[in-house]
Specification:
The chain is of the alpha+beta class. The protein folds into two domains: 8-204, no CATH class; 221-334, no CATH class. Helices cover 31% and strands 30% of the residues. It has helices at 21-38, 76-87, 152-173, 206-220, 273-291, 296-303, 326-334, and strands at 8-15, 47-54, 57-68, 93-108, 111-126, 129-136, 178-179, 187-188, 193-194, 237-244, 250-257, 262-267, 314-315, 322-325. The strands form three sheets. Strands 3-2-4-5-6-1-7 form a seven-stranded antiparallel β-sheet. Strands 10, 11, 12, 13 and 14 form a five-stranded antiparallel β-sheet that branches. Strand 4 and strand 5 form a beta hairpin. Helix 1 (21-38) packs antiparallel against helix 2, helix 1 runs antiparallel to helix 3 (152-173) and helix 5 packs across helix 6.
Length: 336
Amino acid sequence: MIASTPVARWTWGRHNRPGQEIIACFNDLLTAWYALAKNRLVSGVPHISARVSEAGRSNTYLFKETFELDKLGPDTEQDLTAQVKASLRPGEIGSVYAHIECPGIIIDASHEVREEKVFLIGSSAFLDYVSTDLVTYSDAWMPYDLAGRAQPTIHAANAPRLSAALIDLSQGLHAETDPDDPTYFGQPTETGVDNFLREDGSSCDVWSSFEIPYRYNEFTHAPGFGSIGYKRSTDGEVQYVPVLGEQGRLIGYLWASDAEGAAGFEPQDVGDDETYRAGRLWLTRLRTTHDRGLTPSEALRQLARLPDEDGSGHVDATVAPRHMHLDALRELTRNS
């Protein structure tokens, strides 16, 4: 299971010569990536995002870019450093930060499965100190999954690989592994991640307690404290249409209210990854129609004509919009 927020985080830190912030940052970032690759936790060639902040002005960047590399080699750190220095805007360097968002390789029933958003590696350099952190969003390293179900086969296949990578990271970065504070989902240790257990030894269902409410919040609250796009909640009546997936499976409801300037998507099961991704696609579409100046009802009519794209599902064109209070629609969806 892949969570929206970190399952666990580990950090490493070391001192470095002043004036070497850029190359030190890239060196430690790639050292961490190589440790994961050595243990078959990641594969391919990473995309590296880097930024250099101006001294005393952390929100002003002297450089900000993503490198889409074709290959890695012994001189990659030097090459990246040279490219950054050649493109730096005038100003004194403050801090340097670079990160890699890593799809990961999970072993499931003896098969390797590529999963998105398994790891995030970040390195930052400031003056004479470099710190590196590794974040995982996956529960594959834990004895129980995030829903509290035992997963002995998955744990046995993946936990030793993460443990070996943490050792390699410590050795490669010449620093002790520092497990971060507990997250909503687990307790990082020097060798992996532990579940939260009840007094009777059973594992807590942190997926239902934290992940599902976190996901659902996206469908009830517009970004920017409700100031960006259509409102995503209303006390009044809305018009709505069902969105269907393969074989007529209900994904959720697309709804709109001109009176409240509100429009949104009500997912049938936000804990299901396919439903969640589909719902987010509809939210993105609604954001686009809002930016184009369409009213909520105009957006509903236009989006209802779109075909299924990337698993979004589709609206049955023969079904006319119905009307219901949003609270009742949400209750209907929960009970579907």
